[in-house]
Please model this.
Amino acid sequence: MSADVIRELLRIADWVIFAYFVGLNSSYLVLIVMAGLEFGRHLRRAPFAGADDMFRSPLTLPVSLIVPAFNEGAGIVAAVQAMASLRYPRYEIVVVDDGSSDDTFERLRAQFDLVEVPRVVNGDVPYRSHVLSVHVARGNPETLTVVRKTNGGKADALNVGINLARHPLICMVDADSVLDPDALLSVAKPFGDDPLRVVACGGVVRIANGCRVIGGRVVDVRMPRQWLVRVQVVEYLRAFLMGRTGWSRLGGLVVISGAFGIFRRDLVVKIGGMAHDTIGEDAELVVRLHHYLREQGADYRVIFVAEPVSWSEAPSSLRVLGRQRRRWHRGIAEILGKHRAMIGNPRYGRIGLLALPYYVVFELLAPFVELSALVLLPLGLWADAVDLAFAWRFALAAYGYGLLISLFSLFIEEVSFHRYPRWSDLLRGVLAAIVENFGYRQLLALWQVSGAAHAWQGRKPVWGTMHRQGFDESPPRDTVGAGR
Amino acid sequence: MLGVFTGAIAVLVAIVVATSFAIVAVRLARQARQRRIMALAAGPRRALLDFVAENGEQGGHDLVAIPDDAWQAAEPGALALLGKLRGEAHAALVSVFLRRGVARRALGNLHSRSRIRRARAAQVLGDLELRQAVPELCRLLADRHLEVRVVAVRALGRIGDPAAAWRLIAGLDRSDQIPSLLATHTLVQLGPEAEVTLSAALDHPQARVRAVCLDALGLLGAAGSVHRIARVLAEDGMLEVRVAAATNLGKLGTRAGLEPLTAALTPARPTVLRAAAAKALGELGAPSAVPALAVLLDDEEYWVAHEAAHALRRLGRDGLDALRAVIAQEATRARRADTGAHSQPPSAAGHAREALALAAIASAAPDEMAVPG
Model:
């Protein structure tokens, strides 16, 4: 192959990559515009949304909060106390201790005066582990159940929780999540508003690092101190808050975070509960719901609620962040592989024709293209296929468009929810949107490629552990044992 | 081509700068607006609190005399306060709203072209609990937008005029439906006077309407409708309706429910109906249901056995004795298994143990409720 042909191929590849970046950021732009419209719609209706009526109604559907916990001793008591004081008329908390080797269970037993009950665990959904014992709070047995089981992973713990859940709605919550007081009311409300069609509803997850948390409540929202986490704040705003709201409005939401999502129990049981064979069991459940309901020809909705929120601790070290992003991307690769028959298939409507193809092109492949650009552009320069003037303009235009998308996200956040009240935090958010382009995105792409490769190689998934720093400043209280 | 790139970058830079300025401008504008509203609302808020503290006997004229811009700033707080008041203070504050023309404006806005305005107006009329608005709100039950109809239904519930019952029931019979739970709650808010209408609607051709009316009758404690509900349980063609009938016979708690509920336990009936009937028998509180429930402890359907065990727990001494008897019968087999209660497959004794353990926790005399086996 002559040098001229190679040069031409490199030049074409650079143009293809540029077109890809334009397409990727334009798709984000569309989702952000959709999200902005949805926020406007939501805020205009807030005065007559009827949240208080729902809280007062004796008919509001009760919810089972399922909290899988593995070595969460440091924060589990505060987490359960916070969940026990949520504003919702009737709900239970089912903590599933997934074979913790720390004092997770002992702390719960001491704080809530747990007493063992010989509960018969039904087999509505399959689980692989062994249930060792079931306990309830002596002071309020209807509200708190704690299950001890041998270790079987998060999906397995959730399945045990689903089997023990007594209520028609199940809400999956991470043990380290801090929920806003009205969070449960908000994510359950769509089920009351449109009970025949709503089958699942996701809540937004924001980053709690840097925020002031007292008594299991975020009382002062602040930007984190570390730039690594600040960048993630902007990323969460763009991808989770705006992206998922946009997809919800388009009727193509396929990801509900395992940190905070609510589902109809009967449907989750019908499709077999959480899958044991994927690391992204939360998103897989939603895709499988779509799969099942589309095949049934059902008229249904999967919804995303942008406010109020669940707060979660984000990784503050590169090592933990890398592990998390490998896992996330591995999950995407596994899900798309498992449900490949849906991709591009008109039988699955918007999910098959729009959402899943988007996930293949702009989620799964994005890190591969980003890394290709990092290799091919310098190569093009070296081979004289592109000149320097073109190269820096190319890079600036591609990353500049990305920066603009992040700024639009910050703008819509400022117009709608404006959760960061300090001017300094606003400035840090804008700076983080710039900093993100220098190193962070490239590292992310590396980790994501590695995660997808692990999925395709069929390597054994490893969750790893995240050493939580915790953020609650208050002393523990007993709210469950005392009754509500 | 370089020129195109340079132009694109220039446009991008301009938009980035403009967006950054826009973020700052939005924040400045919002802060200025908040300061203005706070300043305007401060006086009316104090006057409102004084008015409420005086139980609405003094200060009404001052509230009516507040300039419009200041009242608008304070109105959301005043409406929220209205929801927390009862009795004379509530009536007095409603009178202030009426004298300020809020109800008149809201009634006018019910005809607005904007669905947001219509919904907001219905919300205000519900907050004011204005009976005169009932005919207009009933008209809104036929609005083309579901969200407006939903707010109208809630407003009718808050006003609580039983005359709206039949219009609400008629409004349920649409393809674009008002949520059943909301409709039920609203019908309950209309009070016992709605019972006759609800009972008559048990013959409605739409299954959803029958289910809603059954739930409302159950929550209203409409004991006079027990025989009609029992007939629905026995004869209705829709499973969901029969389940609702069983559940509400339990809520009503009269002896007349015993026979139809016991009949619904037979194995030929669907599992969900049998589980609902078992649960209802527990709520009914009739010890004569104990033999029928004890048989169900060995049912192969988990939820039927589970509900039967917990129904027996709720039936007091007779039910607890039945649970203990089942455990005694299976004691030998349980000892042979020797692997702990949780590793055994669901059994009659397993369900009985679970129910007895919960009874022991709830009991003031744990010794009496001791779990054998």
Q: What stands out?
A: Residues 340-344, 364-373 of chain B have pLDDT under 50 and may be disordered.
